[in-house]
Amino acid sequence: MRSDLPQLMIERKLNAIVVQGNTDTSSDLAYICPGAKLEGALYLHRRQEEPILFVNAIEREVAATTGHEVKLWTDYDLIDYLKAHDNDRFAAQVAITGDLLRDHNVSGRVGFYGSGDRGYSYIFLKALAEANPQIVVVGEPEPNLFTVARETKDGFELAAMKAVAKQTTEVIDAVIAFIQAQSVHSDGLIKEDGSPATIGDVKALVRMELARRNLEEAHGNIFSQGRDAGVPHNTGQLDMQLRLGQPIIFDIFPRDPKSGYFHDITRTFFIGYVPDDLAIRWRQIKSIYDALLADMRVGERCSYYQNMACDYFEDLGYPSTRSDPKTQVGYSHSLGHGVGLDVHEQPLLNHHPDNDTILQPGHVVSVEPGLYYPDEGWGMRIEDTVAFDAQGSLVNLSDYPYQMVTPLS
After folding, report:
1. What are phi and psi of 82, to 5 degrees?
2. DSSP assignments along 9-46, one per residue
3. How does DSSP assign 268-308, residue by residue?
4. What's the domain range around 111?
5. How far apart are CA 44 and CA 249, in angstroms?
6. Based on the structure, what is the number of domains in the chain?
């Protein structure tokens, strides 16, 4: 949680932390500047001191909404630094950062975070350290300070995630209503004008419904049918007609641009009817999903639940990533991931040998067992995003029905 940052700095023996970038590309910067949209900002937090946020003058009022002390880049005018360094922009940027740290009495171990090209970050921090012997540039492997802080959500974050979850399920309702409003010709859906109702029509509707609710698709969505549903992240073919009796994976993961938080939910359904053999598969997935949610509790290892899913599917004769790490069929992915300011973040529900994470209050994770057989023309997944509140109780943020068949009138 954000309130953990000062203690995490002490534990990592950091005298200061610096986070630099844009809030729309650095989720760490967005995390410490909640709700603010900033470009080219720098956040400086000295241990046992209040943070300072350096921003462009045109964004000063937006920056003030964060509650941090705000200072302007005009105090370190780039043009003056360029003149002093023969128009060498790289040298000017290194000098600006060095002067900023000295002016604010930053010394000792300094952790640097944010986003940027890896090669540029390497040469920049190397040059900064060489020019400023009073600091020690600290780079952290994962899980770093922000990974640990962001892994648990506070009440403000959980409320924001509940809000985007509710709006997301309203979009699903709109898609189901669209499907049920179409007519049937042969085994496909057609619109009022007689043209095929397609996946492209659904995706256009999703964009419109998200816009109505001021939600955005930072990573698109998945609406895949039949064979395409058998490849977990196949997003679906826009010109494919919606057809009866075909498995459809609808995986939607929008973001609220105001709070920055994502939701992630998947439903697999069939239009009109479901073939008997695929109904069995759907019920198998729903069975392990129900068992997982009934068992999930604070204090258990995250890896336990992936192993629980693998045990179940392997006992039924399906391969898993545990029994065959290279499998592209069966249960071919991990059980879930954290959800927050990134749609995929910590903690992870996998069985990797380095995953020693214990579920705790504030964790928010997706739970998404599935089976995939593209050469047989099918794939299915059921997913909800769930949270553990401050008391450790599990809360299903998705809270949406599981309907195998979408009936037509």
Report:
1. -60, -40
2. HHHTT-SEEEEEE-TTT-HHHHHHSTT---SSEEEEEE
3. EEEES---HHHHHHHHHHHHHHHHHHHH--TTSBHHHHHHH
4. 2-149
5. 44
6. 2
**Gap between the Cα atoms of 246 and 237, Å rounded:** 14
Domain identity same for 90 and 209:
no
Place of tokens 């005298």: 15
CATH of the domain at 165: 3.90.230.10
Q: Are residues 298 and 233 in the same domain?
A: yes
- One domain for residues 210 and 127: no
The strand pairing partners of 341, in sequence order, are: none
pLDDT digits (tens, 9 = 90+) for 262-302: 999 999 999 999 999 999 999 999 999 999 999 999 999 99
Q: 278-298 burial by CB neighbour count: b if 16+ within 10 A, else e?
A: beebbebbbebbeebeeebeb
DSSP state of 109: E
Determine how β-strand 405-406 pairs with β-strand 265-271.
Answer: parallel
**Side chain identity at 366, as an amino acid letter?**
S
Strand partners, 211: none
pLDDT tens readout for residues 303-335: 999 999 999 999 999 999 999 999 999 999 999
pTM: 0.95
b/e per residue, 362-376, with b = 16+ CB within 10 A?
bbbbbbbbbbbbbee
Give the count of beta carbons closer than 10 Å to the beta carbon of residue 62. Answer: 18
User: Which residues, other chains included, contact 141 with Cβ-Cβ below 8 Å and sequence gap of 6+?
Assistant: none
Do 239 and 327 lie in one domain? The reply is yes
Q: Are 342 and 193 within one domain? A: yes
My answer on whether 129 and 176 are in the same domain is no
Q: Which segments within 66-172 are labelled E, that is strand? A: 69-72, 108-114, 135-138
